[in-house]
Design brief:
The mean pLDDT is about 95. About 50% of the residues are buried. The chain is an alpha+beta fold and about 325 residues long. A hairpin with a 7-residue loop joins strand 9 and strand 10. The strands form three sheets. Strands 4-5-8-6-7 form a five-stranded antiparallel β-sheet. It has a domain of about 100 residues: 2-Layer Sandwich (Enolase-like, domain 1). The structure holds iron/sulfur cluster. The site of iron/sulfur cluster has 15 residues, from loops.
């Protein structure tokens, strides 16, 4: 591990200033991903700016919805009675994330910003365009079982590995962000970038910006929302495929739908074709099968991950049946 500096931010302006004034500084809070990346030599920040003292922790009402501070721990969100009752897809996604110990440390914003689990990215001894632009992508013809089938480019096919972002996508969640030029709101749907020819640029955050909160709006879909995660083993494992769904129904008809998939895209991946197939119809087994067929339109599997095509269809079908009380 390379040497790096350490500074503790006492308040938000100080945190932003430290990040702005120190080239290659990174903010750290729970540290559950950053510490691993440091130990593995994958990242080499000049300084870590500890933001744990910033008053960004807690869950509070915001209009009809909720505002979650960026430093709120995943376990606090998953255990919150309001989240469980009104945004169950989020509680479920977090219950399925990592281990209880990690959930007690990891923060909401840190979880959104976690890095890919691509084997080559995590191995500093081999080339990787995301870690070292222009060095190559051994995953293209190598170990790509866990990589993406949507959104890849000739530079990178790394899958976004998280759970929470998929749930936030179907909840139409927004982020509060603060930076040197002030504050702004950013839809979670606009946070992550597809790799294109710049896979090292993973988000639309501007230099020195800090995510300060997540807003969950109350929508006609949020309480009827579900999450399914499929993985090699039942706990403390990354998804092979996950699916989040939120449905607005009236008199048995689906009025509006949000469906997103995890571990299949280079970003949290919305499935608009599935949504369109569902809307204005009734949710029964035939409808779930037809919607699931649309889930893999445009998929581009690699040598070892074609199984994700079938698995994604099965997961979409299954979670829709769960949502309809049919499974
Ligand atoms: Fe690196 Fe992306 Fe290729 Fe993985 S898929 S080796 S992260 S460039």
């Amino acid at each position: 591990m390379l040497a790096f500096g350490y500074a503790q931010a006492k308040d938000l302006p100080m945190g932003i200033e430290l990040l702005r004034d120190t080239p290659a500084a990174l903010p750290i809070a729970g540290g559950t991903d950053i510490i691993q990346l440091l130990q593995e030599g994958v990242i080499a920040p000049s300084e870590l700016v500890d933001i744990n003292l910033l008053p960004l922790r807690g869950i509070e009402p915001a209009g009809e919805g909720l505002r979650i501070g960026a430093l709120t721990r995943l376990s606090e969100i998953a255990d919150d009675a309001r989240v469980k009752a009104r945004f169950p897809v989020l509680a479920r996604a977090l219950e399925e994330t990592a281990s209880p110990q990690v959930r007690n440390m990891a923060t909401a914003a840190g979880n959104l910003l976690q890095r890919t689990r691509c084997l080559y990215f995590r191995d500093a001894t081999v080339p990787c365009n995301k870690r070292e632009p222009g060095s190559g992508c051994p995953a293209m013809d190598g170990e790509n079982r866990m990589n993406a089938i949507f959104g890849g480019s000739s530079s990178c096919i790394a899958a976004y590995p998280g759970d929470m972002a998929n749930a936030l996508l179907v909840l139409d969640a927004e982020l509060e962000v603060q930076g040197p030029d002030g504050g702004r709101r950013l839809a979670v749907a606009d946070l992550h970038r597809e790799p294109g020819d710049t896979p090292h640029l993973e988000t639309t955050l501007r230099p020195s910006e800090i995510i300060t909160a997540i807003h969950l709006p109350a929508t006609p879909r949020s309480a009827n929302s579900h999450y399914l995660k499929l993985r090699d083993r039942a706990s403390f494992e990354w998804a092979l495929v996950s699916v989040a769904v939120a449905l607005e129904t009236k008199d048995g008809e689906i009025r509006s739908a949000r469906v997103a998939a995890g571990a299949v895209g280079t970003t949290p991946w919305r499935l608009p074709l599935v949504e369109r197939r569902l809307e204005r119809g009734r949710l029964d087994e035939a409808a779930a099968v037809a919607a699931a067929e649309a889930a893999t339109h445009g998929a581009n599997p690699r040598s070892q991950n074609a199984f994700k095509v079938k698995l994604l269809r099965a997961a979409v079908q299954r979670v829709l049946l769960m949502a309809g009380g049919l499974a």
